[in-house]
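Every protein is a chain of amino acids, and every chain bends into a shape of its own. Below is the pair of lines this work produces for a single protein:
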Amino acid sequence: FDCHFLMILVVMSYHLSRKPISIVKSELHRNCSNIIQPKDINITNNVTWCDWPPFDQDNYQTLFGVLDNCFLVAYAIGMFFSGIFGERLPLRYYLSIGMLMSGLFTCLFGLGFYWNIHSLGYYAFVQVMNGLVQTTGWPAVVACVGNWFGKGKRGFIMGVWNSHTSVGNILGSLIAGVFVSTAWGLSFIVPGIIIACTGVLCFFFLVESEFHGQERNQEGGETAPLLRDSSIVDPSINGAISTEPDVIVEEHSEAISFLGALCIPGVVEFSLCLLFAKLVSYTFLYWLPLYISNVAHFEAKEAGDMSTLFDVGGILGGILAGLVSDYTGGRATTCCVMLVVAAPMLFLYNYIGQRSLGTTIGMLLLCGALVNGPYALITTAVSADLGTHESLKGNARALSTVTAIIDGTGSIGAALGPLLAGVISPSGWNNVFYMLISADVLALIHSFNKEIKCSGQNESTVFTLLKT
């Protein structure tokens, strides 16, 4: 069983199991006045009779924000510890147990439909536990994949590989959409079973030795494992690609400390940039179907299907960001340019995005590419660059911790975005988009700050990128 394909399934299943909540929201609270009332049910409120308590209240958007935040805050907190555990525990057991537990809690949310549970506390607890166990995935997976690719085409190759996160989001939306209007519990149970089964495959077929000490080309070309090329001088982590042969150095057996990882040049700047970029991305992830349903008046399934176009754009944006950053040697500059363009596009989508079907499709694809492009680049190629910085002196065990710090900081933004959307949306969707545009500008500032620090070492990067 090919371990490369297995890791693709792992990433897809993690993201697939996170998506149902965004699809089911528009089913938990509906406009019941437009629905034919069953004759055998005694209805006292024509507006909320078809809603699922406790989401039949006027503050339902705030309650949805609470559910989102229970998952995302737990995920953000757990992520800072996940990388540390991932460096010290067997990868096969770590991933397998995490996926089995994630499948369990995803199914428990859906079983609330069949058990007729109407307690917010129950759903909040399930979300918290699911957020914690989901942190087992990303640091371990990036550490594995980081061993496969050399620096020369790392941005492009990892951009293509990272597209499976968006594919997982798309599949999660489509699977949840199949059941959302008939039995929304299955929208959670089916993805839960899928990630649990993938965990079983991971336990039986993941060979950890495939990810350690691979030396496909010691002459230092494109395929040398990145954890072997940390002796190359990489002054900026802005993506300057060295053409010098790799020098194999002895790996350190001691895992890097949390503070030691923070001291790596670029970790703080890119972490803060990801915080705001992920805030925008995850607000779309959790609230876009409801926004489309409310503004364009689509049914829950149609809104969920339409929202997948944002993830399709994310696939294209991640690949484009990686390709351009490889060609120009500028990771930070690539992020800057995409974030600059993203701000006005978000404004335009809110004002003209629902005027016609063609406009909606085009704007969703464009916004998805511009928002998720920098996000994908930072969580993959940039994390790999920083995890193999020259200051680590060949320490091959640092990548998981660096990835956890960057993604953990980004997950704080992922938690803040949906929470703020839940609080702000009752005052109007325009205000939600103003918040997203502000976050995009803040991400741009931190990315630009990193570019300024590196400008003395790579002055022509920005001009090369603009020419491209």
Confidence is low (pLDDT under 50) at residues 210-253, 456-468. The chain has one domain: 3-221+244-466.
